[in-house]
Amino acid sequence: MGSSKLIKNTLFLSLVQVVNYVFPLITIPYVSRIIGPEGYGIFNYSTAFIGYFILLIAYGFDLTGTRKIAKANGDKNVINNVVSEVLSARILLFLFSIIIFVIALQFFKPIQKDLWTVSILFIGCLGTIISPQYIFQGLQELSVFAKLNFVKGILNTVLIFTLIKKSDDYIFLAVLNTLFIILINVFLFIYGIWKFKLSVRLISINKSLKIIFNERLIFFSTVVISLYTSTNTIVLGFFADNKEIGYYTTGQSFLSIVNSIVAMPLSTAIFPFVGKAFSISKENGINTIKKIMPIVFYLTLGASICLLIFAPIAIKLFYGHKFDKSIPALQIISFLPFIIGMSNIFGIQLMLNMGLDKLFFKTTFIASIFGVILNIFMSKMWGYIGTAWNCLIIESFVTLYMYFSLTKKNIYPFDFNYFKFSSIKKMILLSLQKK
């Protein structure tokens, strides 16, 4: 039943991501030709900046909450307690975020290029407070995401063609983004409470602060990961104009389409599945990883090779000739789906499910410090191309660092017997036959 549910949830999540990006692929050729690289630069920079606030409010609960719910084995009292704790802690973190955001508006010059856009996107953080992803993920019930995102995709597409008519209309991208984040999460939260018959309450500030303190390692790990991912865009903003930011973030955005369709559904579906395997025994969990590894390996490697080959065609087709300078940036980072897929197995699936939170934090922290320093140098010297190379170097570094950290603990995630196509086919067929 477990393997069958894993495949089902992976397929549902892949469908969610396909829906999330198929509709934008319809609108991208239209929008990109109207707002141009500069408009994209402003919108994507503002989005990257607000990402830090989303990170703070989310606080890694999509990992820790999922882990707790997956291990609760359906115990309603435990699940109710987890949901109540996460909601209360996130409300507190949002209030703190408001203070930081107001200060940033006054003193952080790069976002002052368009205060309206960044402010509208910040309002979308309200959706993060009640985001119930960890509930559905922990209980491995993900089909509703596919259906809801399909409706969202249709509405968003219609509204984009209706609202965006001139270069300054990129602000409507921020409005729609915020609107749908809030509405979808409100619906999912209410639906989750009803479907799983949950009872949610707010806990005291003291208890919320204690939870925030106890979960700090995972949060700090997500922060340092962000330091060598989204910080690339923030740092580039100090050395490049909006057009260069637009070229780099266009490549990143297209990479995200591929990564979100292939790697993200695998990661999201695998995490609770592997967590249950580890709850049986360490050996069972590691063996489960070894069986899953070939599927992740082949899918992400294939996606990366296709991205490298078809990058010029994809950019010209979807964004137009104004974005030709995005092509080299996309080709440089084309192997990130494969590299990130591997680091996800080593870090998220193995380290976190085995309770090696400190090791996970250590590896990501070292990578982040190295990444920020290198990024400042490379962005200053070579602009957005330097930023792209930095992204590839750091992601490769953290993946290798995680792998060798695991081997030092005698944890080996690869078993090449499972890499034979006959073995993969047999495993998938057996999984589909189980009910």
UniProtKB/TrEMBL annotation:
It is found in: Cell membrane. Pfam families: Polysacc_synt. It comes from the Bacteria. This is O-antigen transporter. Its main location: membrane. GO terms for cellular component: plasma membrane. CDD domains: MATE_Wzx_like. It is a multi-pass membrane protein. Signal peptide: none annotated. Keywords: Cell membrane, Membrane, Transmembrane, Transmembrane helix. The chain crosses the membrane at residues 12-30, 42-61, 91-109, 115-136, 170-196, 217-240, 252-274, 295-315, 327-347, 359-378, 384-404.
